[in-house]
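User: Okay, second chain of the day. Same drill as before: sequence in, structure tokens out.
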Amino acid sequence: MFCDSHCHPFDLLEHLGEDELESCLKGTACAASSWNRQQFEYHESLAKKALDPPLLLCFAVHPQLPAYLMRKDENSNEKNSIKEVLLPLLESLAREKRLDAVGETGFDLFNQEYRQTEKIQDEIFACHLDIALNYGLPMVIHARRAMHKIFSHAKKLNKLPAVIFHSWPGSVGEAESLLRRGVNAFFSFGSAIIKRKESQRSCAFLPAETLLFETDAPYMPLKGKAFSSWADLPFIYKAATELREEAGSPVNSLEELETRCKANFLMAFPGQ
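Assistant: Same drill. Structure tokens below.
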């Protein structure tokens, strides 16, 4: 069984019909991320269909959302939606035990547009972290050019049941430093391990018990594809197997990696 630690089934509907999506999903354990009520309720409806393996539910305000809302017309009703709608919704979902994880949340300082909202991202992340701590939930973290911010929260992150780094952006050394600080961290890799050298090194050398894999469907397509889906997982696992085999790292066969990552997925999302 392949496991997908981060995907967006609602957004994948743009590329696949609902029947095709559900058919593609069968036999894959995955954690579905959403940032508004419509997305979450669709994912929840999928989860209630008694899928085997189950679909896990994640919710958070994406760190790119403040910048997106700043582009909107000043009179838009969406301007205050984060504080007035989305954060209260996150709190209620956690309180009602409808969540498997808080995420994806974090920081995105990739360009000037996102850096302009850094202070707002700080406030939103602090709120997400408090909710995760209060309700004992794992967090799924998005961090682009922002690892320094993650380290500044390490003392609180190490109190969470698990921290899953979506599309791990850091180095082997940074990952090891988080683990030494007591963070129960899992490092998730997608199609970037086929082309990005730093991701390849991390995937090859990090302890097998910290590895997860993902599609970020539909947003992380393999070369030559228009979108990503769960059909990409065998290729991602195969690439990871080859990297670890070449590096001489433990757990370097496809069967071993699949078994190990299934166990990791269960540990990363312990409330399932």
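The first helix runs from residue 9 to 12.

User: Thanks, on to the next one.
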